[in-house]
Amino acid sequence: MGNERRRVVITGLGAVSPVGNDVRASWCAVVEGRSGVTAITRFDASTFETRIAAEVKGFNAEAYISAKEIRRMDRFSHYAIAVCKEAAAQANLTITGDNAEEIGVIMSSGIGGIETLTDAVLVIDRRGPNKVSPFALPMLLTDMAAGQVSIQMGMKGPNFAVISACSSSTDAIGVAADMIRYGRAKAMFAGGSEATVSTVGIATFGAMNALSTRNDEPEKASRPFDKERDGFVLAEGAAVLLLEDLEFARARGANILAEVTGYASTADASHITAPAEGGEGAARALTRA
User: Fold this and answer.
1) Residue 1: its pLDDT value, please?
2) Considering just the CA atoms, what is the radius of gyration of the chain in Å?
């Protein structure tokens, strides 16, 4: 397809968050300064040191997926489908036989279907290996959110997940933009989805002393730049951008929201969780972008 660098634009947004189940509701909460951190309700956390999290609330998967398919997916895939459908609707993008092969999905996740994995282990322990659901493996795979989005919406272009822990969604956007920039796709849904508020999620992050234990003030627990910070808050949800080749977007009369003009990724080669002191790695990423 040649070496011509194509311009990449954003035409659609999608979000499911602890403060809203679409972009509008989520953004309104941000503007109003409302916190989505509350006491954990997904399981009995009474014996855990951390008993708070930012859970998605009031989400209705049946608004986007059939009841039969819902049972065959982990929650992180439910969220991914919802946000991609929202982004497509905002961008007024219809996927057809004529364009399906030019549209792809990179829907990333740091952990994937950890809730499904936890349930499968419990079934093995309590009832034996023959009782594990045949859908357990495809439900828990980290790239299954992208796969399910493709199946549900009909995209036949590039389809995979980028996994880089907390950077996964950002890297997904950067990689997707490069694919469009060099002609490998005309449009890409790019973002991430997570559903880690589970016993294993809270226990493992808690074992690292990474989580806030501000259980009596959950709405004040997420305070990364405060001198009294005591850890981060585990959260769930999904967000996606619909990226398009500028000419493809113009040809179909899309409303262009922004342009992606640069991206870079670097490593500190320093520590498994902490950035190198001085911010040298972040500075290199900014400069290269």
Assistant:
1) 45
2) 20
With contact defined as beta carbons under 8 Å apart, do 107 and 84 qualify?
A: yes
- SS percent in the chain: helix, strand, coil, step 5: 40, 15, 45
Label residue 22 left, alpha or beta by phi (over 0 means left) and psi (-120 to 50 means alpha): beta
CB 202 within 8 A of CB 69: no
Q: Is the separation of the CB atoms in 104 and 176 below 8 Å? A: yes
Q: For residue range 23-46, list pLDDT tens digits in order.
A: 999 999 999 999 999 999 999 999
Determine the Cα–Cα distance for residues 230 and 246; give it in Å rounded to an integer. Answer: 44
Q: Which residue has the tokens 């953004």?
A: 27
Buried b or exposed e, range 20-50, using 16+ CB within 10 angstroms? bbbbeebeebeeeeebbbeebebeebeebeb
Greatest Cα-to-Cα distance within the chain, rounded to the nearest angstrom = 59
pTM above 0.90, yes or no: yes
CA-based end-to-end distance of the chain: 24
Bridge partners of residue 243, in order along the sequence: 10, 188
Question: Of the candidates 227, 220, 196, 216, which has an alpha carbon nearest to the alpha carbon of residue 37?
Answer: 220
